[in-house]
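Write out the 3D structure for:
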Amino acid sequence: MFKGLVEKNPELKGQDKSQELLHNVTATANLAIQNAAQARQRTEDLENRLEKRMEELEQEFHISPMEPVVTGGALIIPQSLLDTSGSETSEPSEVSQVDRERIGRLAVNAVMAAERNLGREPIEKSHQNPGYDIESKDPATNQLIFIEVKGKALGATSVTVSKRQIITALNKPDKFILAIVEVDGDNAGEPLYIRDPFQEEPDFRVESVTYNLNKLLEDAKAPS
């Protein structure tokens, strides 16, 4: 019916084609506008990125190196080295706490006897006195001598001294004696006296210091 109507009225057919053409032109124009907007946005994005990168390059150009600041450090020691050094400086492994107390008692007794043989009057101090073990007075001058006793089992190669004992020695350099007594079984050897044994106060973070026994004994002498 409509086909026949269009064929009978050619002007209707022309209007239909005009509308189709107008629709196509409009769609093409809208697409062109959309593409242009996208291209413009893309261009602006690229320009912004370029500007930002140029600013970063400018900042990098003015960067100058500063001196490094050391905030900490680490000392890494292989376990095998620790095991080796420990075997050279520690006491024999079979020395128990009971043995240490027995060795300490024998050593103090030996030093007390040596002081009496020298004509001095020794007094053993309590364990609550951490600076020294024996206070010995010379009756001729009334001067006091302060003695820290270290009993060591036969074969020991190190001796540990507390920070308090070291400070006491440094504060009384002319009156302090570090006495070393080697104990073999139940027999205590003759005490060896070391005067002015320490040269400097340990770091405030240190509670005790372990010394090489043989090195200390290089300055040791018979009781006097």
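The chain has six helices and eight strands.
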